[in-house]
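[Help] Beginner question about ligand-bound structures

Sorry if this is basic. My supervisor gave me a protein sequence and a SMILES string for fe (ii) ion and asked me to "get the holo structure". I don't really know what that means in practice or what format the answer should be in. Inputs are pasted below exactly as I got them.
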Amino acid sequence: MEAIKDIGSAGTPGSGGFMHELSILSRINRAEWLPSPDQVLARCLKLFAEEDVPVKKIGDVFKVEGGLCSQLLKVANSAFYSHSGRIDDIYHAVATVGIREVKNICLAITMARQFGHIKMAESFDLTGFWRHSMLVSFIADEFAEGRPWIKRDSARLYGLLHDMGRLAMGGCLPEYFEKALQLSRAGNLSLNEAEGALGITHTYLGWILAKKWGLPEPIRFIARWHHDPLEGAPYSREAAFINIADYLANIIIEPYGIMRAMPPSGDILALADIGRNELENYMEKAQDIIKKADVIAQIFDNIS
Ligand SMILES: [Fe+2]
Ligand SMILES: [Fe+2]
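Answer (accepted):
No worries, everyone starts somewhere. Holo just means with the ligand present. The predicted complex, written as structure tokens, is below.
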């Protein structure tokens, strides 16, 4: 499988590359150029969905997958988590880092591996991508507490995968990703706006990728509609929820410095059952989550 090359003429709609654009779109829709999920990804997704997973069970998954093991030990031995000497035992590492965080690490590394043999766009910041995804995931998890309509595990999963289309763009449409980045910088546009102007968005790619991987419906809809949640029926409420977590994460750290977080409208807040004052109060206690997301994202320094 290879990245789609030669998108030069497709870059600007109306610039004479109409047939070329059509051929890229039809290739995107066939999705044959996107990576196929391996069995570890399916195992991780199953594990993620399970409630009350014992430390032993999750440790066993890491033991079988050697690469996962060393990455988790790295996190467990970081200054943020390790306060009492070196940790070499995987079960001890799981208990130290926490089941929720470990599930996130397991899924993120496995996701990243699906793209492991693909050369990402030069400007794609893999560590930044995962820092952002972890932040959205942890913020969604915290906001889900006390909201019975959304489970915390689900909220975390949605947050972690919401931008999967951006990973697909950076890996499989590298020239397109660079073009969108350039356009956003030159035209003073957000990256989302620049993608929109070029005609292929990370949300559409996320939709196609989630479909190809057979991911559950809510994940597909959230990947597709998290920037326009009011359009995202039948999961518009979940998409609104992630839209808000995404907004907060982008205020905390702006990926590429050009995301220009759009504050959620009153309709989006009402749909997700979140008050504007909750957003303001949240920023004050986000420090711990920022550190946690930072430590975990460091894993991807090695993978990139
Ligand atoms: Fe997004
Ligand atoms: Fe995002």
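A couple of things worth pointing out: The longest helix spans residues 126-144. Confidence is low (pLDDT under 50) at residues 1-16. Feel free to follow up in the thread.
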